[in-house]
Specification:
The complex is a heterodimer of chains A (469) and B (501). Chain A is mainly alpha-helical and 469 residues long. Chain A contains 20 helices and four strands. Chain A has a four-stranded mixed sheet with strand order 1-2-4-3, sandwiched between helices. In chain A, a hairpin with a 3-residue loop joins strand 3 and strand 4. Chain B has a five-stranded mixed sheet. Classes of the chains: A mainly alpha (469), B mainly alpha (501).
Chain lengths: 469, 501
């Protein structure tokens, strides 16, 4: 009996997953930063807080723009009654990660994969950077995975009761976004077509998803001309992407594809789906997280095959397997470090809390970099000119011009017109985000004592008050 | 007979080493600015025990991310001799070892010691490789080991060679990222085998799989920070766009052929053509894989042009040995068999004319470009007569000289990683040397904390100027040192840029 054939290792794997998911926060806390990670998670937290206090809004509370209700906001809002939203933003994704892992394993077993094969696929999945990112950052992706795996698990069962139960996760999944709905339908179609049964069930689900799409997403599309915020990420995590693939998973995945290439005629639709997901993920980066499941699947198969096969160079076997494992482990830990260093930090939050504490409700907007918008909205509870979700092209152009302006009159006029009261500057803006050195352009103009006053500063950031024209 | 070939090989090695050392020691200084970076690292290891990973003299207190194995080994040599000697002898000794490793490979594939010795001899005189004798280049150390690794790979089934391969692979993976060329070569080798349906050797597949993962892992382990900082563009080393084309290719096609050697190129190309399109043969495919990977990397500009040519040239030498064996075999079967010694003699003479002489000519040209004593004197003057924390504006090609010889801060050198403003800096340096507005130069000098301008033939050549245009007009700079080639200017302390209003 080979080592990993003992099922206790599966239980161990869940503990490993818990550690992997905790790593970004462990690293973050150890560096003295106690704020939950990421820009979009702050948006989710703000919306959840608002829902918990005021119920589901008709429009985006700060900008009055159309708001598409997301089940993840409801989940966070519900949990925020039990624990503070900041803590919920840390705990909920991790919990969802563990649940999704369980259902992922059960789905794999439902696909008639042996215990050991499933174990290796789950192992590779646990150590994939996307797993760490999705279940460490508080975003709807964490819920999407659970809903997909849970729904699929129910769908695989023979009983009609389970099938009817699968309506719940699938409808919630469809509510999470158009892209998720399309992927769901494609996956179910390929599954039903490949196993040559349950096509009837698929039609039911398709009708349900279509209905939700028409009821929820179509009005939103008609109002905004878009399908909601899309993910922005690079492709490879080792090169700095947050939701990308690991180079090693890709290498191992390529090898796995090579091993199962002979099944191509039997599962041609599945292969077609994979190609589609990969090709489209270049354009819609939300698909990267699904493409990652595919990569992990093939990588897991490759790892399993390498583990099981008789090696000609028997002396090399254990060493090679160890190196492959180290590669996966390295990319996971390395990505956890990257995630742990994402903004905001404690010093930054101190600046934002100062704004919150020292301004009245009626005080004007905060002029902050677009990437800081969600942080300001959550911690300072102030509106910004643009954030990552609300970014009209003309405002983006205007704010870019103001950051680089050396004309005091122009800046004063703009701030007065837009009702800007505070200007938020921090160290990262000087390392390429806006400038390459201090004391240039807008930062230089801020030193004009007749127009601006430095309200607060610490080692990382400074808040300037605009005195008015 | 075996002993004769052994003696002959040893003589070839001694001849190659002696030739390299002759040229290397024919000038008192090193031939490139980068050589001084390596010398500085070696000196620091010798004095402090560790390399300079963070250099207060390099611009913006540069953080260097590199593997110091080569520098440690050179520093070890320097325990027994002066650093400048060790920096010449150690790389050239290793580079000359290529002769043995190419001999082993050629003997293995042709089963002829004679052809092996000939291939070894030719490998010692690949012009572009030979001409690097005064560069204190890490490639002099890596390239021979690269070919030893190939030889060990060919004998992987032998237990000792297997362990040797594992050890060397791990070692090289931590020495230099050029090992990725080996990785790509192995992958292309497998692709060729699949395309020609030649049947897999499981042991080879296993070792290739291991090698690919290990090499990739090691690179990400060492250079993780660079990958995260620069993303995919890390392959272009963050070299400013104006220097990039020069870095990857400033050599014409004819020069490239001259640098690789005409004979190995023609016959190597013939062997690639023959075995790729007419006669599939697995053992040749290994080298075709390496030749294609090097060619592809050169074509995609992912590898420095000269370095790519070094690999390409040496791989072609091995492919040439195939051709030579085929030719001898063919002639031996014809009525001209009696002329075989004449044929061999003819090949050697042609080779001497097309590779050995070009190697010497190129080496002479390289040492001809050495940093002159006037330049060194000027740098030493800066070292002795300027404040310790003074900054010196010089061409980017002399940044390492400023830190290594003058021991003063530069405002830019050839290490571009982990900077976002290299393009701007390079542009500003150009403006310092070419601007006719003194006020602009003063502003730029203040921006980068520079107090002196080092004006040398390199700057004259680079910026196409014979004197600094702003000097005659203004009163902010004074010439503090001058000799036949170099002038050093000091910015006067009273001249400061102020914002008024």
């Amino acid at each position: 009996m080979k080592l990993f054939e003992k099922k206790i290792f599966l239980v161990c794997l869940f503990f490993v997953a818990l550690i992997v998911l905790s790593l970004p926060y462990l690293f973050r806390f150890s560096e003295g930063n106690h704020v939950f990670i990421g820009s979009w998670p702050h948006y989710q937290a703000r919306m959840a807080s608002f829902i918990a206090e005021n119920g589901i809004p008709g429009t985006e509370p700060l900008f009055n723009s159309p708001y598409l209700v997301n089940p993840y906001h409801l989940l966070l809002a519900g949990i925020s009654f039990l624990i503070p939203i900041e803590l919920a933003s840390i705990v909920v994704p991790i919990a969802l990660g563990l649940v999704s892992l369980l259902f992922f394993y059960l789905v794999l077993r439902g696909l008639k994969l042996s215990y050991l094969r499933s174990f290796f696929i789950v192992l590779v999945f646990v150590f994939s950077p996307v797993f760490t990112a999705v279940f460490s950052l508080s975003t709807p992706f964490a819920l999407v995975f659970v809903l997909l795996f849970f729904g699929f698990f129910l769908f695989q069962r023979k009983s009609w009761f389970f099938f009817l139960l699968s309506f719940i996760p699938f409808s919630l999944l469809a509510a999470c976004g158009v892209i998720h709905s399309i992927v769901l339908l494609l996956v179910l179609f390929v599954y039903c077509f490949s196993v040559k049964k349950k096509l009837f069930r698929f039609y039911f689900i398709a009708a349900l998803v279509l209905f939700i799409g028409l009821a929820l997403h179509l009005p939103y599309y008609l109002l905004t001309g878009g399908i909601g915020p899309l993910l922005r990420s690079g492709l490879i995590t080792e090169f700095g992407a947050v939701y990308g693939f690991s180079v090693f998973s890709l290498l191992l995945g390529g090898l796995g594809l090579f091993f199962v290439w002979s099944y191509k005629t039997k599962y041609y639709l599945a292969y077609f789906l994979i190609v589609c997901i990969f090709a489209l993920s270049f354009f819609a980066r939300d698909l990267l997280v699904y493409a990652n499941i595919v990569v992990c699947f093939f990588a897991g198969l490759a790892f399993y095959s390498l583990y099981m096969r008789e090696w000609e160079l028997s002396d090399l076997r254990n060493f090679a397997l160890l190196v492959i494992f180290c590669c996966l482990l390295f990319s996971s830990i390395s990505h956890a470090v990257v995630l742990s260093r994402l903004p905001p930090g404690d010093s930054f939050v101190e600046c934002l809390e100062w704004i919150n504490a020292n301004s009245s409700d009626s005080a004007g907007l905060v002029f902050a970099h677009q990437s800081d918008g969600f942080f300001v909205e959550f911690w300072a509870e102030k509106k910004v000119l643009v954030d990552e979700g609300y970014a009209p092209a003309d405002l983006i152009v205007d704010s870019e011009r103001i950051w680089h302006s050396s004309d005091l009159k122009e800046v004063k006029r703009f701030f007065s017109r837009k009702g800007i009261r505070y200007i938020l500057i921090h160290e990262d803006l000087f390392s390429g985000a806006v400038w390459n050195e201090k004391g240039k352009e807008l930062h230089f103009l801020l030193t004009n004592p007749e127009t601006f006053k430095r309200g607060y500063h610490n080692s990382y950031c400074e808040v300037w008050e605009f005195k008015g024209e | 007979m075996k002993r004769l070939w052994g003696v002959l090989l040893l003589l070839v090695f001694i001849f190659v080493l002696a030739s390299r050392l002759y040229f290397a020691f024919s000038v008192p200084y090193f031939s490139s600015d980068d050589a001084y970076f390596n010398v500085r690292q070696i000196e620091n290891i010798r004095t402090a025990g560790f390399p300079l990973f963070s250099d207060s003299l390099s611009y913006s207190r540069n953080t260097f991310i590199f593997s110091p194995v080569f520098h440690y080994m050179a520093a070890f040599f320097s325990l027994f001799m002066p650093v400048s000697f060790a920096a010449n002898i150690f790389p050239n000794f290793f580079a000359s070892l290529t002769v043995f490793f190419v001999y082993l490979i050629a003997r293995k594939i042709t089963k002829s010691s004679g052809i092996g010795v000939l291939a070894g001899f030719i490998s010692g005189f690949v012009p572009v490789f030979f001409a690097s004798m005064n560069d204190v280049s890490v490639y002099s150390f890596v390239i021979p080991l690269f070919f030893l690794l190939i030889y060990l790979f060919m004998r992987i089934r032998d237990k000792y060679f297997f362990y040797g391969y594992l050890f060397l692979l791990m070692f090289l993976s931590f020495v230099h990222p050029i090992i990725l060329v080996f990785c790509f070569g192995l992958i292309l080798f497998q692709v060729l085998i699949i395309m020609e349906s030649l049947g897999h050797d499981r042991a080879e597949l296993e070792i290739i799989l291991f090698s690919v993962f290990f090499i990739a892992w090691a690179q990400f382990l060492i250079y993780k920070r660079l990958f995260l900082f620069h993303g995919l563009s890390v392959v272009w080393q963050n070299i400013p766009s104006s220097l990039l084309s020069e870095h990857f290719s400033s050599i014409s096609a004819v020069e490239a052929i001259y640098m690789v050697g005409v004979i190995p190129l023609i016959y190597g190309a013939y062997v690639i053509f023959r075995y790729l399109f007419k006669e599939p043969r697995k053992d040749v495919y290994l080298f075709i894989g390496f030749a294609l990977s090097t060619g592809l990397l050169l074509w995609l500009r992912l590898i420095e042009f000269r370095v790519g040519l070094m690999f390409f040239g040496l791989i072609l030498v091995i492919l040439f040995s195939y051709y030579f064996k085929l030719s001898i075999h063919y002639i031996a079967q014809t009525r001209a068999a009696g002329f075989l010694p004449l044929f061999v003699g003819f090949v050697i003479i042609v080779f001497v004319l097309t590779s050995v002489l070009p190697s010497f000519a190129l080496a002479r040209a390289t040492v001809g470009k050495y940093i002159s004593s006037d330049e060194i004197n000027a740098l030493l003057w800066i070292k002795e007569n300027t404040p310790v924390n003074a900054g010196v504006a010089a061409s980017v090609r002399e940044g390492n000289l400023i830190t290594a010889v003058a021991q003063r801060k530069n405002i830019m050198d050839s290490y571009f990683f982990l900077h976002k403003d290299v393009g701007q800096r390079l542009d500003d340096i150009r403006r310092i040397f070419t601007s006719s507005l003194e006020i602009e130069v003063v502003g730029l000098m203040e921006k980068y904390g520079a107090d002196y301008i080092y004006f040398s033939p390199v700057s004259m050549n680079e910026f196409k100027i014979s004197s600094l245009p702003f000097i005659s007009a203004g009163r902010c700079f004074e010439k503090v040192y001058g000799n036949r080639a170099v002038s050093v200017y000091r910015k006067l302390g009273a001249c400061k840029l102020k914002v008024v209003g």
